Amino acid sequence: MFAEQRKSIIIDLINQNGSVSLSNLVELLGVSKATIRRDLTELERGGYLQRTHGGAVSSDLSVFEADYSEKELKYLEEKRHIAQIAAELINDGDTVLVDSGTTTFEIARAIRTKKITLITNSATIIADLMNSNDCNVELISTGGLFRTNFRAFIGASAEDFIRNLVPDKVFIAANGFSMQRGATTPNITEASIKKVMIASAKRVYLVADSSKVNKDYLSVIGEISVFDGIITDNNIDSIAAKEFRAAGVPVLSDITDNTIIREGDSGMDISEILSPENITLDLKARTREEAISELMDLLFASGAVSNKEEMVNAALEREKEFSTGIGMQVAIPHAKSRFVNRAAIAFGRNDGVQWPTEDGLDPKMIFLIVVPLEAMNQHLKLLAQISRKIIHREVRQAILKAPTKDSVINVFK
Q: What does residue 336 show for φ and ψ, rounded to 5 degrees?
């Protein structure tokens, strides 16, 4: 490919996305980093872009960030979808900090009937909720310097106010997000207040529609790892979503996602969550550690967990508190972690595994439960469901004699 062709493609990408990364250009154009750096330097001299560490951004500030009125109608359906997912994570009594932006505006509207304390730096959210007849939230403004184009309060006084808060959940908007750069925005001042919000949170979520994935802007808000979850729509690039999950960050893109379980509701039946791919009727393990590791292999292979080693450690840490060998030849180890992509149960059966139990009988039936952090008390409810079933001798016998994986599942229907 000739140099002028490469430069033309680079300019098109800059005009479309506002920024480009060196690594993406190398992969796309099939040339060396040195060649791309030379192209970027020449384009910068021509006034087409500005070089940055690891890439370039547009030299036209209008490409960086549209004002609020330009953005509010774009991807509106996706933003409302995101808002519904976010609303499922919020319970009455929560203290919620909501960032400014068109996506977070939809979140505020979706949760306005909840009995919560809502804190925001968004003038648009404040005005809308003040005029909503069905608003039940206790509304708090951060105050600060008002940025007219973006209808938000920013600056030192707003940041100082937030530093004195410890909200239960924080929702952060971004103009772009990627595995390499994290969440980004064109404006340095806005990035600053978003960072303060993240630092204040007990739990923090990135909210951004799928059009923003793998787009990088001037100012970094935070690495992907700082977020407890990414809430987006179901058009997100599957490869990107897999990378985020592999890094231990859940991607919540479906309102029926198993990771969205509200307090007080288990959300599903055992037979719905126990699948054949996570069952072995010929468990090889002879010790508790081996059994947890072998069952976690199944969950990793099926995509239920993104990091086997971390999940095994989490389950074994739980065992240190007290043994999950409940007796009656049954053990129900469980773990709750950010490395869980979806709630799941793995089941294994053999002639007996060495496991501390109250009745001294080695477990022959092992149910390993894993749930994401967002699942509240789902692991306890699934554990209770299993316990209520297996307390009956005929149920245990049916599981021990089950000839197929499907017949094990049928016992719980």
A: -125, 125
| Both tokens assigned to 192 | 């600053």
Helix (H, G, I), strand (E, B), or coil: what is residue 366? strand
Q: What is the pLDDT of residues 194-252, one digit of tens each?
A: 999 999 999 999 999 999 999 988 889 999 989 988 999 988 988 888 788 767 677 88
Question: Which residues, including other chains, have CB under 8 Å from residue 53's CB and lie 6 or more apart?
Answer: none
Question: Which residue type is seen at 43?
Answer: L
Residue 263 lies in a domain: no
Phi, then psi, of 293 in degrees rounded to 5: -65, -45
In a domain, 18, yes or no: yes
Q: Is 379 a catalytic residue?
A: no
Its domain, for residue 157, covers: 68-252
Of 164, 154, 206, 200, nearest in space to 183 by CA: 206
The pTM of the full predicted model, rounded to 2 decimals, is: 0.54
Q: In the listed set 60, 89, 105, which residue is the last one of a domain according to the structure?
A: 60
CA distances from 241 to 79, 177, 214, 247, 249 (A): 18, 11, 11, 10, 9
Which of 53, 334, 379, 392 is the catalytic position?
334
* Centroid of chain to Cα 305: 13
* CA gap 252, 241 in Å, rounded: 9
CATH number (domain holding residue 306): 3.40.930.10
Q: Which residues pair with 222 in a beta bridge?
A: 183
> Has residue 277 been placed in a domain?
yes
Helices (H), 111-216: 123-130, 156-163, 188-200
pLDDT tens for 2-13 read 677 688 778 767
Per the domain annotation, does 381 fall within a domain? yes
Give the pLDDT confidence of 346-384 residue by residue, as tens digits. 999 999 999 998 788 999 999 999 988 766 556 667 777
CA distance 154 to 201: 18
b/e code 26-53 from CB counts within 10 Å (16+ = b):
beebebeeebbeebbeebeeeebbbebe
For residue 55, give the CATH number of its domain: 1.10.10.10
Asked whether residue 42 falls in the same domain as residue 107, the answer is no
